[in-house]
Design brief:
The complex is a heterodimer of chains A (421) and B (86).
Chain A lengths: L15 E9 L6 H10 L4 E6 L3 E6 L11 H6 L2 H17 L11 E7 L4 H12 L12 H5 L3 H10 L5 E5 L4 H15 L4 E8 L5 H9 L28 E9 H6 L6 E10 L9 H15 L8 E3 L6 H15 L6 E3 L2 H4 L6 H9 L2 H4 L1 E2 L23 E2 L5 E8 L3 E8 L4
Parallel strand pairs in A: 4-5, 4-6, 9-10, 9-13
Antiparallel strand pairs in A: 1-7, 1-8, 2-3, 6-7, 8-14, 11-12, 13-14
Helix pairs in contact in A: 3-6, 7-13, 10-11
Chain B lengths: L2 H15 L14 H4 L4 H15 L14 H11 L7
Helix pairs in contact in B: 1-3, 1-4
The chains are: A alpha/beta (421), B mainly alpha (86).
Chain lengths: 421, 86
């Protein structure tokens, strides 16, 4: 556990910093493109069609998979694997590490996923339907594609990484969970460099659309870009998205030694559990999770400049999170709240990592990107510092708190501090 | 299917399995593995595709017959004599 005193009291060997970012989002395939989209109000949600379910909306990525994979690799692997490989390679490139000469047995890969295997299983069942469900036609690729570690394992294969690799199944809290796991492994000395974050291929499974639709939680709107609208009175559900974000994490001593560019320092984190419902969030537990992360970081709520909310655009989920945030940040006049899903939809296992990546540039530009599509704020979602529809100049930004919650009541919070020597 | 048609069919299957390789320069007498980036899972893809396209069953003990284009065509000719290339 992180010491309850300020993280800056820790030795540099226990302080973990972000030194590289690679991502693909429905509205950008690099941190710069993505940030520009978030500041200009550009959505990544578009019309989408998937077998059985038909026409719907989704956040769709258009990264160049062939940049780091052969056609054969793409055919052999999964979409989640391709997303992860793209992000991991981009992150390494961004970090400025001497990758060619880096000891890859000391690298760990920790990627959050909401689900994995549904896409391939649905594909195989669809395929054998054409053979009267004769399982002799079931692909021998099914198991390596659907094992839960697949996206992280594909990164390891692609990049020749021989340290530990695995995924973290943490529903929609997974992006933060990947980040946290990476930091923990660095602190334990289990690796010297962590590729940590989350990925989503969820738009390629009809089941997730059908499931949310049956739950009454799938967004619909005549204008795709207006469909994802957390906090708005007319919100009607989730826009499913694909995407990924991988952070390069290093111990501060290593980052300093190689004079790396440091995007921010992990100041605190927490993961806890509602233990109350399969689906409905529990604002009391969410508040406890935020408070635990703040306590571990040695921070008061009033010190947080930006809270990147998890809100997905569902009626009850948004209200529950705002209730939790009001409880913790009720007295803070400094804190701004925003929401990235309003631009890109819900990128599931990637959401937490992508949403954090979209906010990190605030350390440099002093701007909090908005929550778009709030035409009429739901009074039940009112928070004093909500940044609505237009970016807000907030000036010096020291701390960003990133919420990411998921089904079965998993809550995760990460706090990132602007790094200063 | 004639031996020439079987060869065409195998080239077509290989073009899906190993899309980055140049199949135009394939030497029929040499093992596939010496010329193409194929592993055991890829050979299973050949077996699966033949099963899907033509219902041809290749028992595991015969997989060695698929080592080169020439041996594959020789092995498949009696099995695919009644098959039609689609």
């Amino acid at each position: 556990m992180i010491a309850s005193s300020s993280h800056t009291n820790l030795p540099d060997s226990q302080r973990v910093v972000i030194t590289g970012i690679g991502l693909t989002s429905p509205n950008g395939n690099s941190p710069a493109e993505y940030r520009a989209a978030l500041l200009s109000g550009r959505s990544g949600v578009r019309p989408y069609e998937i077998r059985y379910f038909g026409a719907t909306l989704a956040g769709v990525c258009d990264f160049d998979a062939l940049r780091y994979q052969s056609k054969k690799d793409i055919r052999r692997g999964t979409r989640a694997g391709s997303v992860a490989i793209y992000c991991a390679n981009e992150a390494i490139k961004d970090s400025g590490l001497d990758w060619k000469n880096f000891d890859r047995s000391t690298v760990g890969i920790y990627l959050g996923v909401t689900e994995h295997g549904n896409v391939e299983t649905e594909n195989e069942i669809f395929l054998i339907k054409g053979y009267d469900y004769d399982t002799a036609f079931w692909s021998h690729h099914h198991n390596p594609r659907t094992v839960a570690n697949n996206p992280a394992g594909e990164v390891a294969l692609n990049m020749g990484i021989t340290g530990p690799h695995y995924t973290l199944g943490a529903a929609c809290a997974a992006g933060n969970a990947g980040l946290i796991q990476g930091a923990q492994m660095l602190r334990l000395g289990d690796c010297d460099l962590a590729l940590a974050g989350g990925v989503s291929e969820s738009i390629h499974t009809f089941g997730i659309f059908a499931g949310f639709n049956s739950q009454g939680a799938l967004a619909k709107h005549a204008e795709p870009a207006k469909a994802s609208r957390p906090f708005d009175l007319q919100r009607n559900g989730i826009v499913v998205a694909e995407g990924g974000c991988v952070f390069i994490l290093e111990r501060l001593e290593d980052a300093k030694r190689r004079q790396a560019r440091i995007y921010g320092e992990l100041a605190g984190y927490a993961i806890n559990t509602d233990a109350t419902d399969f689906v409905l969030p529990n604002p009391e537990r969410q508040a406890q999770c935020v408070e635990l992360a703040l306590r571990r970081a040695g921070l008061a709520p009033e010190q947080i400049d930006i809270v990147s909310t998890h809100a997905t655009g569902t009626d009850s989920g948004d209200i529950q999170e705002c209730t939790a945030l009001r409880k913790v940040f009720g007295h803070s006049t400094r804190t701004n709240f925003n929401n990235t899903k309003s631009f890109i939809g819900h990128a599931m296992g990637a959401a937490g990592a992508l949403e954090l990546a979209g906010n990190l540039p605030a350390f440099d530009d002093g701007v909090c990107h908005p929550t778009i599509n709030v035409d009429e704020l739901d009074p039940a979602c009112e928070l004093p510092g909500l940044v609505l529809n237009q970016p807000r100049e907030i000036g010096r930004t020291q701390y960003i708190l990133n919420n990411s919650f998921g089904m079965l009541g998993i809550n995760s919070v990460a706090i990132i501090k602007k790094f200063s020597v | 299917m004639s031996p020439a048609e079987i060869r065409e069919e195998i080239v077509d299957i290989l073009s899906d399995i190993t899309p980055d390789d140049d199949l135009g320069a394939l030497d029929d007498g040499k093992p596939f593995r010496e010329q193409l980036a194929l592993d055991s899972m890829d050979f299973l893809d050949i077996v699966m595709e033949l099963r899907k396209r033509h219902r041809v069953q290749i028992p595991e003990e015969d997989y060695g017959q698929l080592a080169s284009m020439a041996s594959t065509v020789t092995y498949l000719t009696p099995k695919m004599v009644d098959c039609v290339r689609k």
